[in-house]
Each structure stands twice: as C-alpha cells, then as structure tokens.
Amino acid sequence: MLSLGTKLIIMDGGMGSELERAGLGAHDPMELNLTHPEAVRAVHAAYAAAGADIITCNSFGLNRIKYRGKYPLEELVRAAVENAQSAGREVFFDVGPTGALLAPVGTLTFEEAYEAYAEIARLTSDMVGGYIVETFSDLYEMKACLLALKEHSTKPVFATMTFDRTGRTLTGSTPEIVALTLEGLGADALGVNCSLGPEELFPIVERILAVTRVPVIVQPNRGLPVLREGRTVYDLSDDEFFTWAQRMQRAGVAILGGCCGTTPATISRLSRLAGKKVRAHRSHPQTAVCSAVKYVAFDGVRVCGERLNPTGKPKLRDAIRAGDTDYLIAEALRQEEAGADLLDLNLGVPGIDEAAAMERAVRAVQECCTLPLQLDSSDVAALERGARAYNGIPLLNSVNGEDAVMDAVFPVAKKYGAVVLGLTMDEKGVPRTARERAKIAVRIMERAAQYGIPRHKVMIDTLVLTASAQQPLVRETLGSLALVRKMGVKTALGVSNVSFGLPARPLLNRTFLAAALANGLTMPILNPMDAEMTGTVHAFRVLSCEDGGAAEYIARYGAQADAAPPQTEESLFECVLRGREKEARRLAEQETAHTPPMQVVENILVPALQKAGEGYAQGTLYLPQLLACAEAAKAAFAVVGEKLGGGGVSRGKVVLATVRGDVHDIGKNIVKVVAQSHGYEVIDLGKDVEKERVVEAVLSEQPLAVGLSALMTTTVASMEETIAALRRAGCKAKIFVGGAVLNAELAAQIGADFYTADAPAFAAALDKLQ
Amino acid sequence: MSSSDLVRRALAYLGCRTSPDDRLVSLVGECLAEAERLAHFRAVGEVFSRRLPFLQNAPYLQFLEGCAEYALVAMTLGSEAELRVRALMKVDPARAVVLDACASALVEAEGDKWEERFRKNRTFRFCPGYGGSSVSDNAFIFEALRPERIGMQLLPSGMMAPQKSMAGIIGIGKQGTRTCSGCMAAAGCKFFREGGVCYRSEQSSS
Asked: Per-domain residue ranges for chain A?
C-alpha cells in the first residue's frame, strides 16, 4: 500500500523520450503498447529498477477524443496496463487531456469530455491502483476528468496541471485556483507536472503548498528545453534536478517524479529521497471561492453583487424566462466593472425549470465574466446543476438550521468543494436574540463537519430584518455578527433589506452597512453600482487598515474633484456619430420630451447612422468608431423604445449565425451590433451552428432576413448546405452571406440572395428591404 | 518590436490608413496593455532538412527554393484574450474589436521575436492558406509538431483554436519577405487597393 502523505513517494519519469531513444520515435507511442510491448516493458522495468514506487502506464493519449488510430481503445488500454504491471510495482493509469479545446474556444462540450474520461475509468478501474491525471492546462477539462474518475472508480486520483512562466495555466488559472479547485473536487494528491524545470516550478509549488493540505505532487521537466541542431533537448543535469527535488521535499512535497526529458538515471538519483517523511507544510486553509481565473479569499471585506436576482426586477425576470443569457452577461459585466468581488446568481422565476436555467446561466456568465459566483436557490437540484457546471469553487446560498435542508445541500457542497452560506434560522423562524442565532450557526457548522465540510468552508448570514417592522432586532443581527466572528467564521448579510418601508433608504442602508462592517461583516451582498454603498466599503477598508496606506482609496477618490465630466455642447446627431453613449442617452431623453419619438428616429438617429456608414465606406471612420456609434445609437433607441412603451422599437427581426464548422464569429458579432443599432431585433444563434438550428429559428421567428457568416473556404460548403436546407424548408426571409472568403459571385453560386461586404452594407441592405 | 510599432500594427489591422484620432490611439494603448496581461504566448518549432511530402508541391516548392533547411513552427497567444474579446463584444464592442486587433498584433510580434532563434538568414513565416496553398495543410504541421501540447487544436475546418494561433513554414538559408499576392483578403483590402500593406509597421521596423 502507498504511504500517501506520510512518506515520500517516487513516481517514474519520461516515457516518450525513452521510446524515442529506443529508436521508436516514428511510431504512435500509444500503439507501441500493442506493436512493441517489449520496448514499453523495458522502459517500465528500467524505472522500477531505478526505484520508482509507482509505474505510470504508457497511456497519456488513450481517450476516445485524442486517440483516432486503428486499434480498439479497449485493447490498447488493456495492453498499456499489462505492460506497466510487468514491472511488478503499483500501477497508475496515465490520463492526459483530450487535445481538443472546450467551447467556446474550441467545440468540445463539458459532457463529451466527461464521457471520454468516464469510459477510461470503466475500462481500467479494476486493473489499476490509481490514476495520474497530468499535463492539463484547462481547469474545466480537469473538472470533467476528476468528476468522471471519481464517479466511476474508488481508486486514488493524483491531479496535476501545467503552468507557464507567468505562474498561470494556459487558460489563466493560478496555483491557488488550481489547488482550491482540485482539493474541492476530491483529488487525493494535487500539483504540477511538465511546464518548466524544477527551478522555475519551485515558486509555483510553494504557492500550492501554502493553500492546501492535500498531498502535493511535482513532476518537472529536466530543465527548460533548448534547441540544438534543430531539435528540442533538455539538458539539466541529474544532480541539479536532484538538488531542486530535495528542496521541494523539504518544503513539504509528498510525491516526486519526472516529466519531459527525465530518464531512469534521473529517477535513480531521485529515489535517494524515497521513504523520507513528508514534512508538514504550513498551509493556511482560507475561506475562499474562485472562478477559473479569479481567486477571492475572504480575508477582508468582499462585496457580493446582488443584481442577478429577479426579485423586483421585471426586465431580468423576463430575460430569465426567455433564456436571454446576453442580458445576464451584460448585468454581470457591469457589476464586475463596478468593482464587485463575486456575484450572486439567482434564477428563481416561477414556472421555469430552475435547475436547467441555473446550469445555462452558470455556463453563459462564466464564459464572459471572471468573477466567482454565489449560486443562490432554494431548489437543491438547481444548486447541484449549477455547482456541477461551475468552473471553479462556488459559494452555495444556502442552508439553514433545518435538518432536511442541511441533509440535502451539504452532500452537494462536499462533492463540488463549494463554500456554503448558512442562514441563522430554522423551522421555528429567525430567533430574536443574537445568542440564539449564534447557536444555530454552531449547529450548522457541526452538521457540516459530519459531512466532511471543514469550518472554513462555511459562512454565516445572521439575517437582516427591517427596521420599520422589527426595529429592536436590527441590533441582534449586529450582535450575532460579532459572536460569529469570534468563532473565526466569515459572515454575510443582504444589507439593504434593513430599510424596507422607510424613507431615505440609502441613508439607512449605508449607516447599517458601516455598523455591520464594524461588527465583523465579511461579505455584504449589495448593488455594486451604488456608489454610496461601495464608498462605505472603501472607507471602511481604510479605517480597518485593510487598505494599507489608503492606497486604493486615494487612487479611487483622489482625482475625483477634477473628474467631473464636462457638459457637451454637441447635438444628439453628433453624439451618436461620435459614439458618446451616455450623452446620447441623456440627449435622447431631452429630445423625446418635446419631439414625437419616431421623429427622433427618422430625423436624427437614422441619418446619424447613415453618415457613420458612409464615413466607414470612405475610410474616414474606422471599425471601433463605427461600433461606438452603433452603441450610442442603441442607447438612444432604448430611450425612444421606453417612450413608445410595449416592446420598444423593432424594425424587424434578423437571424444571424456563423455556420457549422466555423468558430470565428467576431465578424458576425460586429454585424449584430450594427444591425441592432439600426433598430433591428437580432436573434443570434452563435457560432458553429448546425443547419437544422438555423432552419428551426427561421421557421419559428419568421424574420425579415437571415445572415450567415463563414471565414474559410472550408466552411463555405457548410454555408451552402445551410442555404439549401433553408430553401427546402420554404424560407421566405432574404438570405445574406458574408465573411472573409465570400464575394458576390460565390454568394450567387451557393444560392444566397445577397452578399454584403461589411456591417454597414448589411444594415443598409436591410433598410432597403423595408 | 517597440510598443509604438505594436500600436501601429494594431491600428493597421483595424483598417486605419490615415492618422486616427487621439481617442482611438489611447484606446489601442489601453487594449494593448490588456492583451499583454492576458497573453500566454507559447510556440513549438523544429528544423528539418528532408522535405515532408506536402512541401513537394507548389507553392511551397517555390517558397523553399534554395533552402537546404526549413523550420516548421506553431504558436499561440492562448485563449484568455479571446474570451475577453467575446465578453467585451456584449458590453463594449468598440473595445472588443480593438483588443482583438491588439491580440493579433501581439501574437505576430511575439512570433517574430521567437523565430529569431533560427538563423538570421531566413524567410518570413509562410502559413498554409497563403499563395494558393490550402489551409488543410495545417494538418501536416500539426502531425509533425504536435502543438496540442502547447494548447493548440486543429479543427476539422482547418482552423486553429485558440483563434490567435499560427502555424507556418520558414525557409532557412535565404531571405524572403511577405507579399500580398497570396493573401485571401487581398480582393477586398483597402490597403492593397491603394498600393499599401497592412503590415507596413513590420517593414519599417525591419
């Protein structure tokens, strides 16, 4: 049995380079398991003789997505395991990435990745001692893999990722994010492999050790690659490699091995460390959440943005009901811009499938917004679907002191490594006194511990009641904050509830916020666009010494006196043309106050857009300026829409799609912005869109026009198929095509009605259809 | 490449053929800084003397004529900048297209710098798709270099992901500079029509 976490374990070293040395470099290394088993076994035997405790199967490329060769996967997998077993040591199956990129950068879905790894686990679980998941550079693919292995096998899983010189993975995750997420997902050991040499990896390893108590594994390359006679070689000496390995062992690393360029000789040196006691490292488990690129530790006041909650927000409610994730994304990005640290996400709209909506919203928001999310629902299925789809470690909102709620939510939190927000109430309601609320907090933490959830993974909301209805209880909320803080537990409050039913709400809100912060509130849940509230937080950070030297405060407020925007003398026409969005909105309000709204459209907005289009064609206005102009026009159109009431201004619907096989959609997105600015309602199907989806959208929406985009000659064929499918389905809308390789001749050849060279030309052509 | 050269190149990718206004220039400066923060430039390359079969055809034959050796290269800026462009497209499209242009300029510049490891006497990077060659030839470069290990993927359409990625061939032992004759965008290109080039910054700096 392995002495995981107590004595140092030695893994083996590079396989590919050894096979190359044996003269087999021209072969598919995976197929060598079947075609040259003796060569593979010889490498395994050499590593076993060198002192490796664990032999890794020659299986890095064995998954359904990566391996496309002639042998059945099952046969190769079995051969790889048997070859490794021949060395007479503990055998771990080597699990590598799929080589395909997950959407939206690539086209692979999370479920497809999960399924490929689940298959590996099903095939191997009975044959191997464990899994080493390595060389992953995308945290989300790693999550799919870990979930698949953990759900299909009980064997230990060591999980390692690769980092670049900036200390981030290729998709931007830091060592802290990787450690927090992999620990949360139940990795039995976690760390780093490949990437760089041991010297360059050392600072990354230290950062991982600082935040996790899970055994840490490191498998570096033999130094940095150098190009010699046209070939990449690794030339750090085994002595130097050993010296760095020794330092890692002293720092607390529990498992060491080698990656690219390491040989049995490297491992032989390394094995001098075998059996050494694993040093306790001084990690400080923090209450922290993360997205794939942002780590938020609650070691100071952290603002949770409350705007993605439909309560009292009819537009958001309608967007959720309609599945309009763009609306959610824009709201998320505005809160990010305003300085929120994380965002609440609540999809609680009656009559929808909340679990499905949560999954969709999590995927959409995390693709665009870098902030970690607080998944907020009373529906456990929604929390589960959200946590599963989430890329990182979320906060789950919430449990309370009721057994049934805790028994439903804690298993979800445990499985996905989430932090849980506990509300200090139970079946009897919200206790009146601070002491009773603190008791519920204790009960929640004890119950969490029974599910294996440590105290630092729980936060407590001591609940705000309104000062108008239950005035004496406001003090109890503050008192219980102080009691919970004494337990070393982080706290949260939905601050603005306090002022319901009273005048001058902002005054009460910011006063209460200041009092709550002074009593130990860690996470106020508030509107980050509310400058009074965020200002109170910034001021408190100065007064509590969190903002050292008041540096952030000065940066934010120091220049404020000079920053008052000058009132413009420009007309609405000029503001739209120059892309001044805020001014355009303000002036549109003024104009529509004394001019019929549609006259504003016809006499000002449309001419401004036409002038912009002409400028663009003549080369006096460039793409960014054209788009800024479009945004300003959209803002003005929104004002006009509000004046008109109902659905606002729509000059007709347009369906847009980048065709199947094509992933470059910036052109289509530019067309979308410009068409919207001309008052058209755009149904954007996205990129890599199957023809059936285009047909379906056109039949259900009955648009004025369909716009298809393709960048490459290779995807024009798929454009042609889409047009043919539309014609067969009796599409009445005009079909437009565009994209780098298209021209009028090719457009006619593939059966389109129109070719337009750029976005303004498309909008102008739509105007002519009217 | 200096940062002013990068700004010039990004402006060219945005179609600027005359002096842009200060607002646009400062936006490009901001976006360039953001692109640098989000960049994960990685590259792989190898020098070959024996011609791989796909290089035995036009236009590669002509491109590599007189070269005893050549290098295959693949490089990427990673996906973070691309994701940020996608996000910005929903709230600030003007900034989105500028960031996209800056990321393009940056991956080109980083690629040029990285290629200095090959001999000084070398051609520009000829990418499948230029000059009548087929983008599907990227498959041969992927087979030879396996750039999946630096996070690149070849999609069935011949496109690469992440978008800010390049794969190409460099002739070693002679010099050759880029021309517009093979560019797939030449027909609609305003620079080309006016006798200019979009990559003038790189010419002026070399």
From this structure: 9-273, 291-560, 565-630, 650-770
pTM of structure: 0.91
Q: What is the pLDDT of residues A123-176, one digit of tens each?
A: 999 999 999 999 999 999 999 999 999 999 999 999 999 998 889 998 999 999
Geometric angle at alpha carbon A355, from A350 and A361, rounded to 5°: 95
What is the nearest CA distance from B40 to chain A, expressed in angstroms? 6
Burial class (CB in 10 A: 0-12, 13-18, 19+), A210: middle
Tell me if A230 and B47 make a contact (CB, 8 A cut-off).
Answer: yes
Of A327, A336, A328, give the one whose Cα is nearest residue A303. A336
- Tell me whether the CATH fold assigned to A9-273 matches the one assigned to A650-770: no
Q: Do B79 and A101 count as a contact with CB atoms less than 8 A apart?
A: yes
ipTM of the complex: 0.87
Contacts of B94 in chain A (CB under 8 A): 579, 624-625, 627-628, 631
Q: How far apart are CA B59 and CA B73, in angstroms?
A: 18
- Please check whether residue B174 is in contact with residue B123, taking contact to mean a CB–CB distance below 8 angstroms: yes
Burial A171-207 (b: 16+ CB within 10 A, else e): bbbbbbbbbbbbbbbbbbbbbbbbbbbbbbbbebbbb
Domain A650-770: CATH superfamily is: Cobalamin-binding domain (3.40.50.280)
Per-residue pLDDT reduced to its tens digit, A10-31 = 999 999 989 988 999 889 999 9
Nearest to A357 by CA among A344, A347, A368, A370: A347
Tell me whether strands A130-136 and A157-161 are parallel, antiparallel or unpaired: parallel
Task: State the Cα–Cα distance between residues A440 and A449, nearest whole angstrom.
Answer: 14
- The answer, for A2 touching chain B at a CB cutoff of 8 Å, is no
Domains of chain B: 3-174 (3.40.109.40)
Of B6, B3, B4, the residue nearest B108 (C-alpha) = B6
CATH number for region A565-630: 1.10.1240.10
Using alpha carbons, select from B131, B109, B129 the residue that is nearest to residue B176: B131
Backbone angles phi, psi at A486, to 5 degrees: -60, -30
